[in-house]
Amino acid sequence: MSTTVDRPTAARPTAADLLPLLGAAARAVLHLLVPLAVVTVVAWLSAVRSTSSLASVVRVGADLWLLGHGAPVAVVGGAVGVAPLGLTLLAALACRRAVRVWVRDQAESERPVPHLPAVGVFTAAYGVLVAAVALLSRSSVAAAPALTALAGGCLVGAAGALWALHPHRAPLPPWVPAPLVRALRPAGGALAGLLGAGALLLAVALVAGRERVLLLHTSLDPGLVGGALLTLAQALLLPTLAVWAAAWLAGPGFAVGVGTSVAPGGTSLATLPAVPVLGALPVQGAMPAVAWLAVAVPVLAGAGALLLHERRAAAGPERGLGPRCATAGLVGLLAGLGAGLLSAAAAGGAGAGRMAQLGPAPWLVGLAVAGEVAAGALLAVLLHRAWRARRPQPLPVGLPDGPARAGLIGGARPAAGATAARAAAPEGSPEETVPGRLRRASGATAATARRAARALRLPGRRSS
Question: What mean pLDDT is predicted for residues 409-414?
Fold first, then answer.
């Protein structure tokens, strides 16, 4: 059933319209939290040597769910702050599904779908529920800060609600600068292209290092159930590792422990944790000089995104070089800001000691991506300008107003003198051709008349 509403969405919402969003937020929480708790209980049952209680195992599932919302979990001797972005994506999908159910109910009852009020109510309700889970799951061995959980829950809830309500979005306010509006779409395209390239690089690394990955997996001897759960946990980490790979493409790279570095310039590692997917990391030592060509990927992403944007905007009014260069700079700035935020979500610690630093440095990645994407966008602007300058442009036909213009274009009867001259001219002579008729009508030179005839694409033979 279609979820669009034909009624105007600017109607003033009532409490009956917005209160069901509170239940939608609760459903979005339970749709992911309950399956995650079930998975942790299954893992506890399969571990015959475990001495933990059922309540503590359920709290572990809640802590993993909170990690997916960006809330670091403080443990004995350190903190776990690396977010499994796979869980974050699943949480956003759960929010989108819950809001879409509310939109469908509004459509069936022929009630309006207020965009911004709905986003605000659902975001606030979901954030409060995430903070409540953080308070209820606190224990003496693990605890997540409620304020951080509230902020992360609001971000995830807003993302899911905006995703679901995209067909009902309201126009941007008039106070939003026009250059910023023009830069939003190409910046998102450049960031998506960089992340796609990072995911592709991760897939290539997993294929190339599959022997080391399998060796680490078999050395753990997790068993059938444990192996399935270990594989599932690593699958939830794949989006996080894709952000790490994108940081490698940007140049700064990432760390897998304090004092380590994985970058195009080389790989410096220490003892790694027993996580099989880390077997896909490059081998220790310097990388070939050709590896630095990887930094061309963000440049190409910025150039491609802006070229697509220029192609879509070709039908609009022509803008000068200065505004287009300003748009290119804003594209780089917004893409760098997005890359920095994603790097911050994919970075953190995994306990105390060497594992207190994992992932990319957000400010380094943000600066690198901003400069590289902006350079690519500026290059695209200059290349597009050069291509337009070399492309042949149609010549304007400056025909005079009056009977002569009407006779050529509108089909009016020419003057008597022109008719007599055309009748006296033999067939095929210059006076009988299209340039001759244009020259007689407008008083133009023979070369100008020929160019005007080609521009108008009138039938006739070229005069000698």
Answer: 45
Q: Cβ neighbours of residue 106 under 8 Å, at least 6 residues apart?
A: 5, 17, 112, 113
Q: Which two tokens stand for residue 191?
A: 């960031």
Secondary element (H or E) of residue 75 = strand 73-75
**102-144 pLDDT tens trace:** 999 988 888 888 888 999 999 999 999 999 999 999 988 889 9
Task: Look at residues 337, 332, 357 and name the one whose alpha carbon lies nearest to residue 346.
Answer: 357
Residue 153: strand, helix, or coil: helix
Separation of alpha carbons 298 and 365, rounded Å: 11
- DSSP labels for 359-404? E--HHHHHHHHHHHHHHHHHHHHHHHHHHHHHSPPPPP--PPSSHH
Q: What is the pLDDT of residues 228-262, one digit of tens each?
A: 888 999 999 999 999 999 999 999 999 998 889 99
**CA distances for 34 relative to 29, 231, 233, 235, angstroms:** 8, 20, 16, 19
Residues 6+ positions from 381 with CB-CB distance below 8 Å:
306, 310, 321, 324, 325, 327, 328
196 pLDDT band, cuts 50/70/90, is very high
- H-helix segments, 171-320: 178-208, 210-220, 223-250, 296-312
Sign of the torsion angle spanned by Cα atoms 95, 359, 250, 183: positive
3-state secondary structure of 273: coil
User: Pairing state of beta strands 255-256 and 266-268?
Assistant: unpaired
Q: Which helix (H) or strand (E) holds 78?
A: strand 78-80
CB contact at 8 A, 150 and 126: no
Q: State residue 411's pLDDT score.
A: 44
pLDDT tens digits, one per residue of 199-229: 999 999 999 999 999 999 998 888 888 888 8
281 CB neighbour count, 10 Å cutoff: 19
Is-contact 303 325, C-beta < 8 A? no
What's the mean pLDDT in 30-44? 92
